[in-house]
Every structure is written in C-alpha cells, then in structure tokens.
Amino acid sequence: MLYLLLLLVLLLVCGLWWRSARIQTQFLQQLTQALLQQSQQRTPLILNNIPPVFEPLSRALQELLKQLPANNGRDRLTGLPNRVGFKRAMVPLMPLTAGAFVLLDVHRFRFINDLFGFAFGDQLLVAFAERLKQLHHSPRFIARLDGDEFLLLFDEPMDESALNGLKGRLQVPFKIQDTLVSLKLHLGALDLERFHTDISQMLRRLDLALKKARRAQDGLACYAEGDDVAQLRELKIINSLPKALKSGQLYLVYQPKFSIKAQGCDQLEALIRWDHPELGRLSPAEFIPLAEYAGAIGLVSHWALEQALAQQQRWYAEGLRVRVAVNLSAGDLENLALVEEVQDRLAHYDLPGEALALEITEGSLMNNLHQAGAMLIRLRALGIKVAIDDFGTGHSSLAYLKHLPVDEVKIDRSFLLGMENDESARQILHTSIKLARQLGFEVTVEGVETQNQLRTLKAMGADRIQGLLIASPMQAPELESARERLQLPRQAEA
Ligand code: C2E
Ligand code: CA
Ligand code: CA
C-alpha cells in the first residue's frame, strides 16, 4: 500500500515536472521566434503566457531592445516607420497633390504612464498602432513620429466631419491588462490638394494644425491659409508676456455684479487688460488661452491676485467693502501650492477671506475633480467664495455640480441669446436657474444688456446679474466715482 502511494506521488511529481518543462520549452521556442522576427522586421516583441521563472528574463530583454539604437527607420515598440522612415518613404511619392495628412496625439498621455506605469503605456501604444493599421478606410501610410504622435496619409481629402468620424473610431476604449482605458485624441489635418509643399514645411503646418486642435473644443483642426502668420503673432504674444507683467502693460478693470435682492452691487469681477506696445489692446479672450497653452498662466493668475488684493487693501482702508472675484484657469488648479499662496497673499495685505472670490470654469474642475475639489474646500474654509464660471458651455450637468464645493453658478451669456423669442431657450434658462437655486447655489447671469432681460431673470429667480446694463468693466478710479450710482457697500472703519 505504502509502495503504491509512493509510486503515485512519484508519478505526480514527474507529471508536474514534465508539464512545467513542456511549458518552458514552448516559451523558449516562442521567444526564439519572436526575437528572430524582431531582428528581421522590427516588429514589437510580444510574449504571451510567460512562465514565472522566465519573467525577469523577458523583462530584461524588453529593456535591452528599447535601448538598441533606432534602426531601419522603424520604431521598435510598434514596428511602424519613425520620423526618419517617414521622410524616407515620402521621397518617391513627391509631389503629393491629393488626399490629406493627419497628425494626431493623445491628450495627456504622460498621465497614463504616470498612473499605470510605462509597460502599460507601451502596451496601449502597440494596441493603438494596431487599430490604426486596421482602420476601415485604411491610410496609405502610417508612422509614429514621436512618443504619442502618429501620422497618417490618406488618399481622400479629410474635412472636419471625416476627421470627426476617424476620431470616434479611434477613441473606442481599449482593454489593457483588464483595465478599460479611454483616450482623448487631438487631430490636425493638412489638405494636400491646396497645400502641397516640401516635406519639412508640410510637417511644420501639420504641427500648427495639431496645436490648433489641442485648443479646439472638439480636438479637431485643419491647417488654414494664414495660420503661419497667426502663429507669429501668437509667438510674439507669448514671448512678450513675462516683460509685460513686469513693465505695467497689464492692468485690471473691475465689472460690478449686481444683486437683484439687495438692489446694489455686492461683488466686483477683476478682468485683465493688456495694452501691447506693438499689437495694441489685446483681448484676454486671445491671450489667456495662449498663456494657458504656453504654461505661463500661473504667472498671470499670480499677478492678477496680487493686483486685486493690493487694490482691495486700499478700498478696505477707504471703507469700501466689496468682494472682488479673480478668474483662475485650469492650470492654476494643478498648482498644489495654490491654497498656501492665496492664504499668504491675504495675510500679506491684511485682508480676510471675505475680500475674495475665485471664478473657475466647469471644464477646469472636471479635468481634475479630486484634487481641485479638495483645494476648493480649503479655500472656502478661509471665507473665500467660489463660483463656477461660464456654466452651460461645458458638458457637466447641474446635478453633477451638486457634489462640488462651490457657492455660485455663473450662467454663460450665450443662454440669453435666444431668450427673447425662443420659448425652448427660455425654458432651459429657467430650469437651470431653478435647479441651481434648489441645489443651494447663488445664481449670477452674465452678459445682461437690457431691462427686459433683467425683468425676466428676476422673475426666474436669479440672484445676481452682470453685464453692460449695470456697468461695463472699468478701472479703479472710475469705479470709485460711480460708487453711489452702483450702490457699492460702504462701511465705516472699525
Ligand atoms: P469671463 O470671465 O466670462 O468674463 C466676462 C466677459 O464678458 C468679459 O470679457 C466681460 O468684459 C464681458 N462682458 C461683460 N458684460 C458683458 C455684456 O453685457 N455683453 C457682452 N457682450 N460682454 C460682456 P473680457 O474682459 O474680454 O474677458 C474675457 C475672458 O477672459 C473672461 O471671460 C475670462 O475667461 C478671461 N479673463 C479675463 N481676465 C482674466 C484673468 O485675470 N485671469 C484669467 N485666468 N482669465 C481672465
Ligand atoms: Ca469670470
Ligand atoms: Ca463667464
């Protein structure tokens, strides 16, 4: 009996040993084949069912392959042509006089690497490259120019609607290591029938189109005549910003926010102005997005906060007690030291949190909900009020906003446009105001220009209005002269 048992155990051990030896042999065969294929065709090294004992070896091989110099004009990870390979392949195709180039990249790909690790990012890029190869209207040529930048050559023209369709097909979520990842893409296109030049210029123009796409709401843009000139202007603006901040070319104007209940202005919004020595008066609608794009918005916001608080210190000393709202951008909410900076500046000017409000757009909050939410809670604890700016222009619903630590919702002036003669536009506005108030927010409507609009908004329950009907934005001395008319709160020195 004992012998029989021993024999059984021996058989079992042999079986297991044989099975694991078979798995290991199979893996070694697979590895040999993959390495051969990699060295001949520069395809990615993809290995499946790696036995645990071989995991360190396959990791070391992957690392080693990544470090080999780029060869043959091919990208080692995806097997696609790289920038060198692309330029080489275009030589016999020139001149390209029909179809389109599309350059695309992934919004914040770096964050995917940071969040899930580089191995995950690599797998995602390989899967993305495969998807490009399998597109229904397959491109004539595909290349990976840079980290997350891919270039496609199509035989047909690509207008915005074709680009949109392409974007939709490419954005279907990926499943990587049992994790579902959705990508947001930017696509820039160059129409070859209109803009066929040499490869270097075409690449420069495609870069411009992609830059435009990164700033567009829908993430799409086609290169247009004059974009090069526009880029020169943009470069000039970006480059002259640091000097402008130091040399007094920028200043703040203040637009009152009128409380319907109090029948007076209880807040001012600080809006930035720039008198450029060469380009004349620049609209913040032009240079703020550029500063955001160039990563310089922190400088602007810091400057605006500083100016507004310095002004508030003077007004407080004169007994003018009115909250001033400063606009913040998405980039500011990524600054982890924001709360400390605000607190420090308030202390520096000896002002309470009640002197300040901050306006942030819904988009910038949604980008970064967790971190931004935590910062807003701390800012509100200082007595600062927080408003959601341009409400209705993004994708969030009021029901979603109810979880956010904000005090006020500013309804964008586009809501007013159809109000007078479009019953459904009126309904939407009315419902938004009602819902926002039910959720406990104060509601301000922007861009109010007529008495008629004011009457309607009052009936709809809005708390405040802002717009040319009350006052246009003005500099501090002008505002002080209009103090009586605007019913700005006055308080005697304690
Ligand atoms: P916003 O925060 O929505 O500011 C309101 C804009 O509407 C201002 O334009 C204001 O002058 C304009 N406006 C006010 N009342 C009326 C009206 O009755 N009718 C019309 N048609 N327009 C009205 P502005 O000053 O050109 O500012 C444009 C945008 O630039 C602002 O939009 C804000 O997003 C940004 N901005 C301005 N100053 C700053 C700043 O200091 N920092 C940041 N981050 N952004 C700023
Ligand atoms: Ca604002
Ligand atoms: Ca606004």
Automatic annotation (TrEMBL):
Segments forming domain GGDEF: 97-228
SUPFAM superfamilies: EAL domain-like, Nucleotide cyclase
Any one Pfam family match given in the protein's UniProt record, by short name: EAL
Alphabetized SMART domains for the sequence: EAL, GGDEF
CDD domains: EAL (cd01948), GGDEF (cd01949)
NCBIfam families noted in UniProt: GGDEF
Domain of life: Bacteria
Record's protein name: Bifunctional diguanylate cyclase/phosphodiesterase
InterPro entries cross-referenced by the UniProt entry: Cyclic-di-GMP_PDE-like, EAL_dom, EAL_sf, GGDEF_dom, Nucleotide_cyclase, Rev_trsase/Diguanyl_cyclase
Domain annotation EAL: ranges: 234-487
PROSITE patterns the UniProt entry points to: EAL (PS50883), GGDEF (PS50887)
GO terms, molecular function: cyclic-guanylate-specific phosphodiesterase activity
